[in-house]
Write a structure and sequence with these properties.
Layout: H1 7-30, H2 37-48, H3 56-74, H4 84-109
Helix pairs in contact: 1-2, 1-3, 1-4, 2-3, 3-4
Length: 110
Amino acid sequence: MLTMSYNEAAGRAAYLAGFHAAQALISERTGRAAKTHRGVRTELHRLTKGDGRVDDELRAFLGFAYNLKAIADYETGPGSEVSPELATDALETARQFVARMAALIEAASA
């Protein structure tokens, strides 16, 4: 996506990857499904509060990336673009976020 300058799509994909990874952690830890953005963020914060394995940048990722998704899905006009730098940062953080959620799931089932 980035090589073709689909920055908005890359930002949306980064958010969705993180959102689904967080949903997986929530489901594994609680046996329940969180379906909304707010519900996932709230439950993720509750589950990872005080957990040194999830730093502040990762904890804030869903909020940041949701803004990119909102731009891609709803915004038009001036300022409604995702820069290549933001899209690249979002994808890199999404990789870290997904890997951390997978590690937390694996550690809980070990």
